[in-house]
Amino acid sequence: MNDQRKSKKQLIEELISLRQQLAKWNAAPTPSCPHRSMDEPQRSSALPLTPHTCLWEGEFKSLVENSPDAIIRFDKDLRFLYANKVALKVMGIPLASCLGKTVSELKLPRKYYKLWKTQVETIFTTKQQAKFEAEFTISKEHHFYYHARLVPEFCPDGSVVSVLCTLRNIDEFKKTELELRASEFRNHKLLSSLPDFLFYLTNEGVYLDYHVTNPNLLYKPHNSRIGKHLTEVLPAKQAQQFISEIKRAIKSGKMESIEYQLPINDTICSMEARIMTYDKNSVLVIVRDITELKHLRQELTRLDQLNLVGEMAATIGHEVRNPMTSVRGFLQFLSYKEECHNFKNYFQLMMEELDRANSIISDFLSLAKNKQVKLEIQNLNTIIKTIAPLLQSNAIISNKSLHLDLNPIPDLPLDSKEIRQLLLNLVNNALDAMPPHRNITIKSFMEKGQVILAVQDEGTGIPPELIEKLGTPFLTTKEKGTGLGLAVCYRIVARHKAIIEIDTCSHGTTFFIKFNQ
Q1: Which of 150, 180, 211, 435 is the most buried (most CB within 10 A)?
Q2: What pTM did the predictor assign?
Q3: What is the 3-state composition of the chain as percent helix, strand, coil, each rounded to the nearest 5?
Q4: Sequential DSSP letters for 203-242
Q5: Which helix H or strand E contains 416, and what residues bound it?
Q6: Strand order in the sheet with 256-264
Q7: How many Å apart are CA 196 and CA 271, to the nearest integer?
């Protein structure tokens, strides 16, 4: 207990001593430091004593002189009242040339004078300390960034007598900051160039962060995701797919992937997601729109099938056609014999079937990949007008009508026979898809530098499940169809280096064939 009382007593004595020292400091012209005797010789880099000059003693002076920071004192006119060794070294100005001079008198660059004048005047006006960062240039080869802190020093009457400035070299910090910003900029550019979406989720499926290049491909607006669960953002089926694959990725420690579809902007988009663990509590999900990729894969599969059928047709077509031609010739010869007159209808039926078989073989041969095309510079409108009477007669026979809407278009390298076959197949399909008293329209026009041929019907549209399969050999909804008509169309279009696009709904279907100039 005695030791405890003695300790408390010592603390009280030390507190009284500290209060006495503080009272002496408050009695000095500036409270920042103790007053020095007027008779004491000047030993620091300060001005000769003035009524508001602060003279430093002992450890405090040693601390300031040996500080790694530049320390300067200014009066209201921006006159140097004090500068420590670091400040003088940085400015490259001798002590005798510095003290008592204003910043403008030292002929420092005007931008520094304006900056510091504004800052110091603000301190005298507001009586509040301030901070700022700036760059100081000594020469073209040597410049650095510094952080400045300005503190007002007061007289006993409360007025500001001077401003004490501490300047710290932050060049290394600034360089690191600039490098970090440059790295962030590069990373941002890199992420912005990626077609993928990046999602950062908890292991339970809650959104923590994300990066989206094209917000239009999101199922829901991107500003409503953070903090929400997958089930709140995606349809139930797709959300459950994600949750299952997240669990699998966490368990296996490997990247897992899923494919799914989402209705976005009235279009069914195919998406691929790759899921990998990020840390023990979260996963990273990379999502890519693969709608176009899947379309290309389907197109490649369809073309492979066309090639296979075409190669088969090229191999056996002529061998089958020759005997069929002979059989048809003899049937036609016998049909004219008087003794065979009673069987003429049978002969006619057999010849029609042979003609139908020959037509199918011709379609097969049209699928051949290496079929020669004779491309000549000509106008698409001319070919349409040439075949229009035949198309018109087919329409009239089925109690339907055909209209032409042809606009001025440039000439193209075309094979007229193949284009006529293309038009005949498309129009016949349109006639088969429409009830009586409906119209077919053939259009030609320019759009985005391409020549467009459009065949539009007023049928009931194509079922969604068949859209992606169109052009596949033997795919047909007709009772007596071969499934080769559209396949031939796709092959003809491919040989002309054009593309087919389809727009279909319950009110009709339009086939767009787009030719590059």
Answers
A1: 150
A2: 0.42
A3: 45, 25, 30
A4: TTSBEEEEE-S-GGGSSS-GGG-TT-BHHHHS-HHHHHHH
A5: helix 416-433
A6: 207-211, 197-202, 282-289, 267-279, 256-264
A7: 10
Tokens 């894969």 sit on residue: 297
- pLDDT single digits (tens) 93-152: 777 777 888 888 877 777 778 888 889 999 999 999 999 988 887 666 667 888 999 999
Supply the DSSP string of 322-339, one letter for each residue. Answer: HHHHHHHHHHHHHHT-GG
Q: Residues 268-302: pLDDT tens digits? A: 788 888 999 888 889 988 888 887 787 777 777 76
* Per-residue CA distances from 369 to 310, 491, 514 (Å): 6, 8, 20
Burial state string for 312-325 with b = 16 or more CB within 10 A and e = fewer than 16: ebbeebeeeeeeee
Contacts 24+ apart (CB under 8 A), 26-32: 26/156, 27/156, 28/54, 29/53, 29/54, 29/155, 29/156, 29/161, 30/54, 30/153, 30/154, 30/155, 30/161, 30/162, 31/153, 31/154, 32/153, 32/164
Q: What is the DSSP letter of 138?
A: S
Whether the CB-CB separation of 499 and 378 falls below 8 Å is answered with no
Query: What pLDDT digit, counting tens, does each position of 403-449 carry?
Result: 999 999 999 999 888 898 889 889 988 888 888 889 999 999 999 88
CA dist 248 and 254 (Å) reads 8
